[in-house]
Amino acid sequence: MVNYYDILKVSPEASAAEIKSAYRRLARKLHPDSAQGSEETALKFAAIAEAYEVLGNPRERTKYDKRLGEMTLSGSETVLTSTNRHAQRWRQMVVEKRYNDIIDRMLEEERLENLAFQRAVFPLVSLMITCVLATAMQPRIFILQGVIGKIIIVSLFVAGVIHIIGRVKDGFVRYTEEDIHESILDGTERKTRPMSRVVTAGAILGGLIVCLGVGLAISRLASYPAQYLSSMFSNEFEPEFFLYPPIVTFFVDVMHSIVARFER
Asked: Residue 109: inside a domain, yes or no?
């Protein structure tokens, strides 16, 4: 039985991200175009593509690991290969234990993937919503504060911006990629290829601009807060409105992270 882990040069315990990284590294190195059409390189490239097709799919990898474990046991010269009924029972228990470990690993990877997706997307969604709310309600919080209050708000704004940049950076590394040569991707991966970082950055920036525009439009159509509480809400656009979305996003995301930690 072909050992796909050896082909991709990864451990059987490797995570999905490590397997994908290994495949892409070898794909760049062994692509036939890079070896001037070498037949040997083409065969190696086909082998790593086949290995990734199996190991890159969680369900196919689970089936493969189960078969690999059974083949390893059946080919081992140990007491577990004996025809003795007690030895056979022990072999069955070992196989079941390995299979359960494989399932547990797959579920854990799915959980970590969902958590990473939330960490990347949640702050952006929160930021866009608060952009709409800040420009729609137009609160006058910063201008009404004293020196200490203003320092606190600016400090929270800086902390919020740094926090959001960190989250976005992690999401970019995990879910986007730099432009690479299309020919190193097989048909399956090309269909599910992540967006490039330039396109993603443009989409995020465009979304924030749209949210600010929507908030301003709402404030012009329904300026109720400014009518009844003119001391706390402005009737005009003020630069201080840019301070609030990162601050609110920072607090909301911290609370979300705390709740997610307790839910583990």
From this structure: no
**Model pLDDT for residues 88-113, shown as the tens digit of each residue:** 666 566 666 766 776 777 777 777 77
Both tokens of 218, joined, read: 């709402």
**Can you tell me which residue has the tokens 């807060």?**
225
How far, in Å, are 17, 64, 75 from residue 81 at the CA level?
A: 35, 21, 8
Report whether 138 contacts 237 (CB < 8 A): yes
> Which residues have C-beta within 8 Å of that of residue 140, sequence separation ≥ 6?
231, 232, 233, 234, 238, 240
How many whole angstroms separate alpha carbon 9 and alpha carbon 26?
9
Q: What separation in angstroms does the CA of 167 have from each of 117, 172, 250, 253? A: 10, 9, 11, 10
Instruction: Identify the DSSP state of 194.
Output: P
* Token pair 């079941």: residue: 96
User: pLDDT by residue (tens digit) across 32-76?
Assistant: 655 555 677 777 888 888 888 888 887 888 888 877 776 765 554
Q: Which domain holds residue 222?
A: 116-263
Kindly state whether residues 54 and 78 are assigned to the same domain.
yes
